[in-house]
User: What shape does this take?
Amino acid sequence: MTAETDTAPAALAVRRPGGRIDAALVTILAGALILWFAPVGMGRYGTYVLTLWLVMAIAVMGLNLTLGVAGLKSLAQAAFMGIGAYATGLLTAKMGLSWYPAFAISAVATFAVGLVVGFPALRVKAHYLAFVTLAFTSLVWLFLRNEQWLTGGTFGLPNIPRPTLLGTRLDDALSFHRFVVVVTAALTLMIWWLMRSPWGRAFLALRENPVRAASLGVDVRAYTLLAFAIGSAYGGMAGALYAPLVEFIDPSPFAISASFFLLLMVVAGGSGYLFGPFIGALLGVVLPEWLRFTGGLYLIIFAAIVLLLLIVCPKGVLGLAEQALGAVVRRFRRTS
Assistant: This one.
């Protein structure tokens, strides 16, 4: 594929002409710096919400890669997040393993499971694939709820320890938040690099026209499985951060409804955009908290805002912003 056939949105920007630094890279680093200091003075709960936003953004990043970039409709991201959370919780709370190897094991395990779950994508497409992944999510949730001997069932898995850094346990909210900021920035840089690589262009080709991609030499089977596996691993890594964040997990956050909610975040933020997951997770995690001043009406108001957003801009917030910027640029060119 040549640069002319690349249909990636502008927010997935690759190298600028003349070798200038990519604006996306600057945005990632600047955002990490802002988030490092953002919770100062916010209090424990405010810091928790901010950290939860970043954790959910990682999960949405994986689904955005699978769905928004590669075009594979998946409703299994909550299941992969649950697998990562329980793997980390069991390895750290029950077996006494450090968080770092538990994080790596969770990522590898969900990558491997994602490969297996991705096989139906080689034979079924569109909503049929969504039904397959929905069945997988149901299976994982039932296992987490019913296998009490391993997962604790509905009683949950308590006392999940937080990571240590240089011998110091990150128990306070601010230090753990900053730890999550670093991990999130690293994972975002990985996605940024991936989208600039031949792999990223192959994923985009799968989304746009698989037949044409195959004719250009893209191994459709391999890249389909790879997109599923990498997206699943991001769900597992998000779960590995979620478990020590809440320090107690039960099956409810990983039910079918959670997968639909993650899908909503992808669409609302802007499917296929590098920073879409952060906007979508902001709408899904932080916006409901901002609306709590309305009392019992906050969920109704939140649903109305999201519904209106999807009607006005079906391409998501970043899609609307890109259209508005394009209109401004075109008008400027006509007047100049």
Observations:
- Residues 1-20 have pLDDT under 50 and may be disordered.
- The chain is about 70% helix and 0% strand.
- Residues 111 and 233 are 5 Å apart (CA to CA).
